[in-house]
Amino acid sequence: MGVSTVFRIELDRPNGVYYAGEVVKGKVVLHLRKEVKCRGLKVRLLGQARAHWHTGGGEHRTDYDGVKTFQDHRITLFGNFFSSDVIDEGGENPTFGIAMGEGTIYVPCDDMNAPRELIVRVMDYDWGKRDDLLGEMVLDARELVASHEPRTYDLTRNGKSNSGAHGNTPKVTLSGSVMPLSALLPSGSTGATGAVVAQYCLVLEVHSCANLRSADWVGHNDVYVQTYFPPEGSVMVPGKGLPKPEKRTIIPAGDHEFPFVMPLRTDAPGSAEIGVGDYSYIRYHLHANIDLAAWADPASRRAITVLPSRPMPAPASLLPAVCHRPAEELHSVACCGCRCGKLGAVAISLATERQAYAIGERIEISTATVANHSKKAVEVELVLVRYTILTTTGRAFRGATKGGITRVAVLARATVSVGQTKEECCGAVGEGPLMPPAAPSFFGALGRAWGGDPVTWTYALELQVRSEGGGMGAVASASVPVLISAAPPFPNSVPPTGSYPPVDVSAEIPWSIATKAISSGDEYLSTGPLLSGSEDALGQATLVATGVPVFVALPTEARYIEDQSQLTFQPFELQWPESLDEWPAPGGGSKDGGVSTVVGGGNGDKGGGFAELLESLRSTLDRRTAVGGWVVSNPKAASLLSPEQMGVVLSDTPLSLEQPSVARELGLGLSGRLTCAHVLAAVQACPFAKTNVALALAPMLADPHNREPLLQELFSFDRQRVEAAMPKASSPSSGAQQAHGPVPPLPGRPEALADHTTAYRT
């Protein structure tokens, strides 16, 4: 077992299931046989999409890889060396802060006075080898904190200032504050030295870098920022490089617990195991390691499931749709693009009442007709089909793609005799099958477009017809593109049956449904709820396992994982009841005219006023779940929350990393009544999380024209970001409800989707 007999990651939730935007809380449990000299103990939350496939074999084999990092959050739990997240493909002018916490570095300090002298280095991350220095500087952190504003600093490399891109001076923009460590960690931990026993913490915020030299032969820099105290006895010589970090610290022998808190992105894509090519997936895992050497670090890994809040259906996806195939030829043999043995034609029609369903909802089939004009009886199947595109993002073959088709589930079967027309091939009209468990549709992640999207997928319902017993025969089909959404729509968002004529989708490809999905843009107002926690399902949805357990470490990595039991991961999805008529409608009115816009809100409160909310906060460590549950159970009280009450709740949330998610729950509960006064009170109650709290609430504002007092409370650098997140009100009466236009284009979606789909079918 090496230096440790116990090395594992324990989470506050044993099943390891979290919603996008939640905070992952846990601890690293460690028992050391003897003291260990190391560079430190670190923990990392990594969320990635990965894809790999190959062609040929042996010496003629060619491998294709795609990787995109959605989140790479790192914390030094023990040691004297600290760093930010890595900005994947950041290039020469990276911007930090697109994801919450990605530019934040926590440096322990003994008191409320920030250290006078820190060395800050901007680095290019290179996996498996030494990282490249892009620029460095000596920072007076106390002066930075006292300024209350971001500062831009020149960087040098080997003492030279013109060492950046195109001979320019590289720069970094930073801001800083000091906070009690208790606002960052849920509790203390054991150990004699290191960050875990400091009373205060310097929060160093990296905003951006500029003019960074290129350290990669191909592609863009993967940029992160590291900081450390100058090694004792080191001398800084003008015109020379700064002293390198002293990467040696001692973890005493014995039992240790190191708590950590890490926020998930509010727009985090959901975990998914796709299985096209050699592998394709979106995974999140926690990785802790004692930093000894490049390849032999004792480590622990724990995979988690992230449930997405998107996609949700745009109104166009809730209209009926129909696909007609009036004369599809059948052949007895179809192989390698060649067809022979004409059997005659079939006519196929498939129509659904809408094009968007959540897992477990009943698929409303209005038409499933096959007219058999061929020479043989035909077999008919209603199939849920997943269309996948893998894309390379690596240095070699960047942009190469591979398509795949997967029959996710056969939902119904029928046989149609020669000359027969069967009108209910999927059972009785209006009594269709349930949407089976499958990863919600994914058209690409929000973020940096040049990173690409290694794996994207969409779905279609297909009525497939082939000659009876014709395993080698061609398949004729009618296809309706469908969206598998993160949650069902509100009942009042779905038009009554027969109120609209069906949209003819006969000429549409499966990927066309992306234009009818809410995958990006404003996440707070839509045809359905924003899933921010388990309480939003209100006991209606259940977690169901999808697929088989997977091993989440490469063989080379697994050799150094102390607890192998944590390497097996079972994917989960939410399964909903087939009908949820009691759900409230969007925009502040329930089905029966109530005020709630949260899932399960109904009309009446369950006796829990503001005092009960405060009492529940003091009896649990999971503040977001407590607040979300209260909002769901007490929609009227939540919608009448005053700015002062909002400030009290956030003041009673001790962890600064959890305050933005708590603020978002309160904002959702206000049901379109969130004012700038509410946000101002929230920001003032969260001195160490002002910007993230403001960003969480800004899209929900009903009175953005009153924003000036709120903006004055923020750093000047952050005001632009917060103002950009507000609804664009054209007049004082314009609120968040009027700020929505058409669904914005989806970043990262492959360009040649029509060509791919055509290629699959032939």
Automatic annotation (TrEMBL):
<feature type="region of interest" description="Disordered">
    <location>
        <begin position="152"/>
        <end position="172"/>
    </location>
</feature>
<dbReference type="InterPro" id="IPR014756">
    <property type="entry name" value="Ig_E-set"/>
</dbReference>
<dbReference type="InterPro" id="IPR011021">
    <property type="entry name" value="Arrestin-like_N"/>
</dbReference>
<dbReference type="InterPro" id="IPR050357">
    <property type="entry name" value="Arrestin_domain-protein"/>
</dbReference>
<dbReference type="InterPro" id="IPR014752">
    <property type="entry name" value="Arrestin-like_C"/>
</dbReference>
<feature type="compositionally biased region" description="Polar residues">
    <location>
        <begin position="158"/>
        <end position="172"/>
    </location>
</feature>
<feature type="domain" description="Arrestin-like N-terminal">
    <location>
        <begin position="245"/>
        <end position="308"/>
    </location>
</feature>
<dbReference type="InterPro" id="IPR035892">
    <property type="entry name" value="C2_domain_sf"/>
</dbReference>
<dbReference type="Pfam" id="PF00168">
    <property type="entry name" value="C2"/>
</dbReference>
<feature type="domain" description="Arrestin-like N-terminal">
    <location>
        <begin position="7"/>
        <end position="58"/>
    </location>
</feature>
<feature type="region of interest" description="Disordered">
    <location>
        <begin position="723"/>
        <end position="762"/>
    </location>
</feature>
<protein>
    <recommendedName>
        <fullName>Arrestin C-terminal-like domain-containing protein</fullName>
    </recommendedName>
</protein>
<feature type="domain" description="C2">
    <location>
        <begin position="104"/>
        <end position="149"/>
    </location>
</feature>
<dbReference type="InterPro" id="IPR000008">
    <property type="entry name" value="C2_dom"/>
</dbReference>
<dbReference type="Pfam" id="PF00339">
    <property type="entry name" value="Arrestin_N"/>
</dbReference>
<dbReference type="GO" id="GO:0005737">
    <property type="term" value="C:cytoplasm"/>
</dbReference>
<dbReference type="GO" id="GO:0015031">
    <property type="term" value="P:protein transport"/>
</dbReference>
